[in-house]
Amino acid sequence: MGGNNNGRAWVLLLFAALLLRASVCLGAPYLIATGVTDASVFRIDEAGQKSLLYTQAGSQPHEVDVAPNGDIFVADVVSDSIWRFSPSFGVLYHFPSNLDNPEGLAIDPNGNVFAAGTIGSADIFTPNQVARVTPAGARSLYASVGAQENLSAAMDLLGNLFVSDLTHNGSLWKVTPTQQVSEVVSNLGFATGITIAPDGVSVLVSASQQNKIWKVAPNGSLSVYANISEPWALAFDPAGNLFVGQTTQISKITSNGTQSVFATGLHDVRGIAYVPEPASTTSAILVATCVLYRRRRRHAEIDRLAV
Structural domain tally of the chain? Predict the structure, then answer.
C-alpha cells in the first residue's frame, strides 16, 4: 500500500515538473538571432543576454526559423546553404549557384523549408524562385516571386506563404497553398523582414530605410504598426511582444506599443525567431508539444472567426 502511494507521489511530482517546464516553454521569450557582420548565430535569453550558438568566418547568416520538432534553420548567403541545428550544426541543402543567395526562410507544419532570395535569377528581369526543401533535403520549385531580391519569407496559419521583394519600390507577395502567386501591396519602401501577426493572418513588413514597420491586413489594407530606427528582422513571442532586429541591437515593442532595447552588442540582425530551448529529450518533446499547441490554438481561433 505504501509503495503504491510512493509511486503515485513520484508520478505527481514528475507531472508537476512537466507542467512547469511546459509553462516555461510557452511563456519565456528566448530568441535565436543572426548577426551578418558578426558571421554568427546567437541565443538570447529572457534577460536579453546573448551567448554564441554558432560562428563561421566569412558567413552571412540571414533569416532563421524553427521547425515544429524544435530544429533551427538558418539561411546563409555566402555559402548558398540552409543550415540546420538538430541540435548540432549541419547543412540541410546547398544551392548549386553562387548567385542564389538564400535570405528569406519559412517552415510549414510538416517541416518543409521555404527559401527565398535571388534563387534561379541571374538578373533583375528574371523572377526569383522560391525553393521548397523537404526535411530529407530534396529541393523543388515552389513558386516564382518578384524580380529583384526576396529578403524575407513567412507562412501564415492558413498555409499562405508571404515573401518581401524590392521590386515596385518594395512589395509583398503571396503564394497560396495551391501555389497561386499575387502581389499583395507595393510602395512599401525598402521591404526587408516580415512576420505573421498574432492574429495568424495579418503580415508585418519592415521598411528599414524608411524607419517603419507596416501592418498588412488580409484584405491588403495598409497601416503603420510602429516607427522605429532601421528595422529589419521581426518576430513575435507568444505574449504578443514584437522583437525587432536592427543595426546594432534588438528592440522590443509590447502589444500596447511601448518600445525598449532588449539586447545589444549585435551587428546587422537579419533574422530572429522565438524558440523554447530544450535541455533534454523530455523537454524537447515538450517544446514540440508547445509549438503544435500554439499553432492549433491559433487555427481554432481562425476557425472561430470564420464562422
Answer: 1
Largest CA distance in the chain: 78
Asked if residue 55 belongs to a domain, the reply is yes
Q: Domain holding 95: CATH number?
A: 2.120.10.30
Q: Would you call 146 helix, strand, or coil by DSSP?
A: coil
Domain that holds residue 113: 29-275
Within-domain flag for 305: no
pLDDT of 264 reads 97
Write the pLDDT tens digit of every residue in 140-173: 999 998 878 888 999 999 999 999 999 899 999 9
Is the torsion defined by CA of 307, 242, 206, 69 positive or negative? negative
Q: Is residue 18 a part of any domain in this protein?
A: no
Cell of residue 115, nine digits: 527559401
- Does residue 304 form part of some domain? no
Contact indicator for 260, 249 with CB cutoff of 8 Å: no
Let me know: does 300 contact 72? Beta carbons within 8 Å: no
Put residue 102 in one of left, alpha, beta given phi > 0 → left and psi -120 to 50 → alpha. beta
104 SS3 class: strand
pLDDT at res. 18: 39
